[in-house]
Design a protein that fits this description.
This protein has helices spanning 15-32, 91-110, 129-133, and strands at 7-11, 49-55, 61-71, 74-82, 117-125, 138-139, 144-146, 149-159. By secondary structure, the chain is α+β, with helices and mostly antiparallel strands. The radius of gyration is 16 Å and the shape is globular. Bound molecules: coenzyme A. Coenzyme A is lined by residues 28, 80-82, 87-93, 124-125, 127-128, 130-131.
Length: 164
Amino acid sequence: MIEQPAHEIIIASNEEEIQQCYKVRIDVFTHEQGFPIETEIDHLDPVSIHFLLRLKPSLIPIGVIRCSQYGPGTYKLSRLAVLKEYRRFKFGVELVQTLHNWIQADANQGQGQAGGSVKVVCHSQIPVKSFYAKFGYIPEGEEFDEDGDPHQKLILELPIPLQS
Ligand SMILES: CC(C)(COP(=O)(O)OP(=O)(O)OC[C@H]1O[C@@H](n2cnc3c(N)ncnc32)[C@H](O)[C@@H]1OP(=O)(O)O)[C@@H](O)C(=O)NCCC(=O)NCCS
């Protein structure tokens, strides 16, 4: 297997980095997959944490994932995307793990859930269900339409370790 390119994952913290996240999403979801551009940037964007994966040292953006609050003790994973030419390098796995680590830290500090667990919800495209299943995501309910394409609600019970 070809070696994974050098990279870093940051939390987008200024307008330029947020726009870079949107560009990766539009490349993947709109141009590659054909989802409508009108719904790509949505009501969750202003209230989400945006993780941006970029190559080093060039800082070219190639992957994204987004985290938002879903309800009390529940978070939402959305807009996971890696540019087509950079797939199968485990970048998708690394983005999900980074999001899970962030949730664990957030739940630990902010909401006093150490030693318990929180829920992470995801609306998965059908072919990607098996990718999320590797982390323990379990389907809930029937498939439904989102942005013109069938999706499945998945839920993960994410343990929140006790702080050392
Ligand atoms: C889904 C996506 C982010 C995965 O990114 P990636 O960097 O290629 O994935 P990884 O290299 O981390 O893959 C890890 C494992 O998941 C599997 N996998 C990767 N993409 C998959 C997919 N689309 N469906 C099912 N399994 C997948 C790989 O085979 C690999 O399995 P292994 O550990 O047994 O070898 C990427 O395919 C993508 O951007 N797809 C288009 C956008 C999309 O569908 N996003 C999800 C919306 S719900």
